[in-house]
Amino acid sequence: MTTQHYIKDYPRPQFVRDAWQSLDGEWDFRFDDDNVGERERWNEQLKGDLKIQVPFTYETQASGIGETVFHPYVWYERELQLPADLGQKRVLLNFQAVDYNAKVWVNGRYAGGHKGGYAAFSLDITDYLNTAPGVPNRLVVKAEDSQSCTQPRGKQRWVEENFECFYVQTTGIWQSVWVEYVSPSYLKSVKITPDLDTRSVRFEYQTHVAAPNLRLETRISTGEQTFKQVSLQADRAWLQLDVELTHEAHGPWKLQSWSPASPMLYGVEFILYQDDLVIDRVYSYFGLRKISIEQGKVLLNNTPVYQRLILDQGYWPESHLTPPSEEALIADIDAVLAMGYNGVRKHMKIEDARFLYWCDVKGLLVWSEMAATFEFNDEAVENFTNEWTEIVRQQYNHPSVITWVPFNESWGIPEVYTNKRQQKFTEAIYHLTKSIDPNRPVIVNDGWEHTISDIITLHDYEESGDALHKRYADAGSVLGGEFSFNNWKYVMAQGYAYRGQPVIVSEFGGIAFDSGDGWGYGEQVGSTEAFMERFRSITQAIKDTPYICGYCYTQITDVQQEVNGLLTADRTPKIPLDEIRKANLQLTE
């Protein structure tokens, strides 16, 4: 079950070209704790004394190094072999994620860089290459990281040891590196906006125009059958086209919407012509689905959807934030579905694009959540805003992404309850996100102390279902701010009022078995029976609260010292998955 032009391990499955080359694998590597590398021109010859397996960071066992001590500056080098038939093609060097500040040299010459640990970036390195047959090219990357809390870091620790729910840092290249080969004129990106109500789709194209007489053709298909084909002149960098989804020969086409029950995806092929010659071809897809809010409910395709989510931090024992393989991503999604959940809250992490692809294919709903800063000042605001903007644009086309979550539990905005500057920052991020994507709900600030937010979310790790039910029995008292829920937090920040938004308990549970090691929320349990009794009790309490329209259980797996997963860190179930599934489905059907 894949899209028609799926390529295994392709790093960016929403925008696929056939001509590409992976640069994952062994690179030369070197620490630079004194930051002397640029002064000593390591960019010209690294003389790396270590080997590393990219895209795994040096902190992980999968990298071949496995040292968890923080190093602020690290260097990478490898050779790039160009295809013999390169001709006039341009070479785009792509990084899916480098934490935190990347600098790139090609054959000793600086080719560009990027700041931000979670967003992908691309560099055109053609002008720095030796293109003669058989002549090697050297790529050198320097990654600069810090323990600063003004950079978005999520669950990465900023001290030397793990503490509470913060884990070993991630430094350097941690997602795939690859090159693709394009003509001098090529398609840079396409923003795809389906409209279920009008049976149409909007394409916003960004092109690199380097020649005259360009024509861009768009073909929409189901399987191998093209049912819509449109063209326009590509005479400028930005183009837009609205397409009615009707069959050209047979009138109205029987359209299918995308949903967890039926994750229908339509294939799209973008073909750029110069005169009659094909010079670029890109494959993509979209799902015809709509997310909306009416009368305190979240609607999927104009029908209320009860969200049964699970918190997913995306860590693995041997590779930390980096998925060990595409198969590992698929296995996690399959486990979530097997347990009766219909979605994930991807917590404090921007996940590998292949994860979102498989959520699109398998029909798993996703809340996309930004990695937090932990201080509030002008630098943190700038870092956060720039990277969040990139991420929203990069994930926009995935139908599985149904909610944006820029802030969590006031992290990075610690005084938002009363501080006007911090409140205005959340408002700015809300409206900025809406300017890019007006169609998905935005949650500001997940868990408590909301300012403006399309959904009101609550975090509560109460162990007793009876206590939980009693606490939330009176919606007006909780949402009106008459008392602090969870004994210490209010739903709304000062100066803001509840205005009828949907309400979801987006963190609860966190039940851990008594193992003598690590921690969970509340008292640890000693048996499967005790676990399931508490699980059913607290989940039933949420379900029995009429104004609450969904939940997110903490969490799918153990993560380092945090042992409250339904699976161990190596993905061994602690509870039979069908038992969790029965409980979830009985509670929500």
UniProtKB/TrEMBL annotation:
MF (Gene Ontology): hydrolase activity
Occurrences of domain Glycoside hydrolase family 2 immunoglobulin-like beta-sandwich (ranges): 186-289
SUPFAM superfamilies from the UniProt entry: (Trans)glycosidases, beta-Galactosidase/glucuronidase domain, Galactose-binding domain-like
Glycosyl hydrolases family 2 sugar binding domain ranges (all copies): 21-142
InterPro entries in the record: Beta-gal/glucu_dom_sf, Galactose-bd-like_sf, GH, GH2_Domain-Containing, Glyco_hydro_2_cat, Glyco_hydro_2_N, Ig-like_fold, Ig-like_GH2
One family name in Pfam for this protein: Glyco_hydro_2_C
Protein keywords: Glycosidase, Hydrolase
Lineage top rank: taxon: Bacteria
Residue ranges of domain Glycoside hydrolase family 2 catalytic in the record: 325-583
The family this protein is said to belong to: Belongs to the glycosyl hydrolase 2 family.
Protein name in UniProt: Glycoside hydrolase family 2
